Amino acid sequence: MIPPVQVSPLIKFTRYSALLVGMIYGKKRYDYLKPIAEEERRVEAEEKKKREELERIAKEIAEGSSSV
Question: 31 to each of 16, 23, 35, 59, 62, how far by Cα in Å?
Answer without folding.
Answer: 23, 12, 7, 43, 47
